[in-house]
């Protein structure tokens, strides 16, 4: 086993012991946030935000309802009633397709609808399943949720079919990955793990060392990485959750406190600053302060609701509607 693989295992075990089995990312949330921060009608719940790693205040008795079965009138469903891996929204020109878990929750991977004919989300779906089982995963997925052609684990590397993940060459040691036909120096670089992943390993090792000596530094950053090894949309520093780009840099002024980041996804922030400009387009919807899409949007006297991905759901004239039900769809 290579030193990087050893660190992944060490980091995962450390976090499981220190937080909760709910935490599926390779980072613990180190914060001084406590029950005293909750107001009347709220209760302090550990491991309730930031992918199960951070505590928050939630309405008393108010747990997040489970996702209902797949409705073929609104979603693409499998014969067994689960959600298909690829879910598409909008028209062929401005619509996009997103990767989904079996319960219909969006996971890593997206593509513009007119380019998504061969999108499978096989890698994202598989990685989400493995993480849900509490496993440390080194799979790298491409931006559309398919497999990157080069995969490495436990010091060994091999090439795979992008749509299925099926290996198509004999594995070699990681130090020899440059001899694989799928290796690209411009894409991979000299190491398989990306900058965000390496930082997560380093921070996790520092926290492990601190915990073994009975100390914790409350200002330590909590970094999350996406399935392609880039920085995830949310990074936590000094009790503040920021929307960030794939390079880890903070996007605009979208932020909130750890205590109020329940449901934060930064979809609007990333669409505004990254995905739409890359296609030469502009986001016309309004973002909330935390980087999510504001559920209620308006053009003059016409009001409409949007879901968490910014796509229209209902139109109204006159009295503004209650769009909060779309804040979790």
TrEMBL record:
It comes from the Eukaryota. One of its GO terms (biological process) is cell-matrix adhesion. It is found in: Secreted. Keywords: Disulfide bond, Repeat, Secreted, Signal. GO terms for cellular component: basement membrane; extracellular space. InterPro entries: Dev_reg/Prot_inhib, Thyroglobulin_1, Thyroglobulin_1_sf. Pfam families: Thyroglobulin_1. Residues 67-121, 123-182 form the Thyroglobulin type-1 domain. Residues 1-21 form the signal peptide. PANTHER family: NIDOGEN-2, SECRETED MODULAR CALCIUM-BINDING PROTEIN. This is SFRICE_013536. It comes from Spodoptera frugiperda (Fall armyworm).
